[in-house]
Predict the 3D structure of the following.
Amino acid sequence: MHLRTSLRVLALAALLAQPAFAKPAKTTSPAVAAPAADDPTSDDPSAPPPRAPAATPTAPAGTTPAAHPAAPAPAAAQPTVAPQGAPAQRDELSPEQKAALKEADRMRIEKARIDAEVALAEAKRAEELAPLNAEVARLTAERSLRLAKASAEAAALDDERAKLERQAGLEAARSSARLTERSNKIRELEAEAKQLQLEAANTVARLSNEIQRFQKEDEARKVASKAKPKYLKDPLVDGVLYVSDRRIALNGAVTEQLADYVCTRISFYNNQSSEFPIFIVVDNSPGGSVAAGYQIQKAMAASKAPVHVVVKGFAASMTAVITTLAERSYCYPNTIILHHQASNTLRGNMTVLKEQIDFTNQWFDRLATPIAKKMGISLQEFVKQMYANDSTGDWQAFGDKAKELKWVDHVVERIEETAVLDLLPAPPSPPAMMPQTQPLPQPPTRTEISGVVTKVDDKGRPYFELPTLANPFDAWWLYDPQGLYRAR
């Protein structure tokens, strides 16, 4: 297609250039030299007016027209056509006009040649670019097709992703609902199990106490058939304190296990009768856990039956707080009661240590403020007198002095344990979850309840290992100048 176009352009250029290549005739016949007056093609206003035909030169005498070398062919044999708008006779033009006409002819020829070359070059370029244009068109079409396919695939992938996301969200919601349902069911079952365990423990404890009571009464009948514990609403009679079998022993370090033991028995004796007092008997106790002691104190305050604390030997720190804040308390004249500030086993960086000290101070303020109030002084004065009476801050006092300080309510000379009706020792209970392949330790009785374990260090010195504080905000508040108690 491009070759045909090129050929047509070349033919058109040749036709345009044909008048320039026509050779002008030196002699022009009269019929051709001047255009007719009514010739419609002669419409150039700049053309000169028609002239009369010039006379034909006469050949010399003795010569024929054919013998003249410069004689032109007859007009009928070789007609010549002058260029459009050109003068009819070039011979009649001036040399300048002839030169200009010649230059114009030359320029027309050159223009025609250049136009032909340009047309040919354009044809060649179009012919050379045709495969490239076709390739560009093909690549453009392929690219459009690929883009369309990619768009379709992306749309399909987006739909699939959205579908998968919806399915995943739905499955996650279902899983969360199932997990929540199972968690609620587990909590319900745990609550039911805990309630059943509590009821079973209360039943077992009640039955065990009934059995022990019947056994003691049966053994007592063998010795004295009429001997029974004395139950008195006011157990202090003529300076003698009568302690019944509504008795709870509190000895050694105050721990979470010991607090559970004491609080459970307070509840048990309350359920038996709220008419007669319950006795917490302290032989020796250096104090212990602040949280555990506070638990015992609140159980005493919530008890319907009055809870009386009896200190026979020594009560310090947290145990002294329990004694001082009891509804009624008793001790011997030489019993020692000791109050001091709370302490802690500190660990961590300076910031952690400061936080622990601040929190222990808050414990002390909450528990020591009621003591200072009972004494009739402020907490600051209470602490000041601690160090005024002893440089270490351990303010100890015998029973009679403790009564003056209002740390104890009554000082007695005699305490009768009316519930001691036999000499049969209680059967030892091995620690729970202890592998039977290991030898069972035989600590003193007071450590079996509290969870304190008797051990021997590398130097052969015995000590008491305190159980780990379960409450992360708890602190030890005990008196241990010899370092017999060590925290795990």
Notes: Residues 95-223 form the longest helix (129 residues). Residues 20-82, 426-446 have pLDDT under 50 and may be disordered. The longest strand covers residues 307-316.
